[in-house]
Design brief:
Blueprint (H helix, E strand, L loop, with lengths): L12 H7 L4 E4 L2 E11 L26 E6 L3 E7 L8 E11 L1 H8 L11 H7 L18 E3 L8 E4 L13 E4 L14
Antiparallel strand pairs: 1-2, 1-6, 2-5, 2-8, 3-4, 4-5, 7-8
Length: 192
């Protein structure tokens, strides 16, 4: 698989969040199709970039197509894609993947054989794909340890809902998901 070109990435964060549905995440032998994302805009009170650039969030301020990896709740890593021009912090959280390759390795890392639970949710997918802070800032449009690729499979209907698990600015419909996918996270009422 070849990485997506940076030119193909939409320049708008919301458009990118929707565009990423159906794209492929490649991390060595582990491969998965993106089935759920959330957009975090430049002036969004829920975004890590809202407070300005810091040492922790600096990858969000890279030009679009770079990994922003952070640790949430002191236990789970989260994978995001920077989504704006350099110096303007915004990103897209990858919330869930459909496992495609390296499933035995994902199961070993996650400690479960249940396919549906390998990559359903951002913390689970990071654990299954061995994503940690060493990948923060990686160019996802270049061959390497972690990258995004295109998939030739047709994409089904894409739904929208409010984001999950946040309290600030939670109402906007900035969450995108593949309708009918068993790998989408969150409550059923948001996935219809």
């Amino acid at each position: 698989m070849k990485p997506v070109s940076r030119k193909s990435l939409p320049a708008d964060t919301l458009t990118l969040a929707r565009w990423l549905i159906g794209k492929i995440v490649v991390r060595g032998k582990t491969v998965g199709r993106i089935v759920e994302t959330e957009a975090y805009l430049r002036d969004d009170a829920a975004a890590h970039s809202f407070i300005g650039e810091t040492k922790r969030n600096r990858s969000l301020f890279l030009r679009r197509g770079h990994a922003y990896v952070y640790i949430a709740y002191g236990t789970s890593y989260m994978l995001n894609v920077s989504s704006e021009t350099a110096g303007h912090g915004a990103g897209v959280l990858i919330r869930a993947l459909e496992p495609l390759g390296g499933i035995a390795l994902m199961a070993q890392r996650r400690g479960t054989e249940k396919l549906r639970d390998l990559t359903r949710g951002p913390g689970r997918l990071a654990q299954a794909f061995d994503i940690d802070l060493t990948l923060d800032g990686v160019d996802l449009c270049a061959p390497g340890a972690l990258f995004l690729a295109n998939d030739r499979a047709p994409i089904g209907d894409i739904g929208m809902s409010p984001r999950i698990g946040i309290t600030k600015n939670a109402a906007p419909h900035f969450r995108f998901y593949l309708k009918g996918s068993p790998f989408v996270s969150g409550p059923r009422r948001l996935n219809t």
